[in-house]
Please model this.
Amino acid sequence: MSQIAIAGNQVVITSSVTLENLRLAEKLRPDALVLKDEEGNETFRVSVGSNSIGPKGVSYSGTTRDERGLATVSAVIPEDVENAKDYIVDTYGLAIERLGKVETALPDVINELVRARQNLRSKIITMGAQ
Model:
């Protein structure tokens, strides 16, 4: 599950997944990063590339500055906002809720992708010069 923090005039959402693993899922299992409605229409997407958060999706562009390298996205809290927590709930609450649904399933997807890649890599041989 993501962590939401207020840092100065910014809200910072830190994923439970690394930016590298999000890129892997985006490349090999993009459907795992999407929520759809009953008719199959996309309602929310997690992606990598820009720094944005809204009701239709989250796009991560940064990482934590530690060894974990978790994906981050941030947004400015306007200076005239009196209660930052209420602002975040009102402005980003739906996106955060939807993001939680996507991120709940991601660890299993990532583990499966990593195992599959390792399995395939182990089957590739390098031919030596003769």
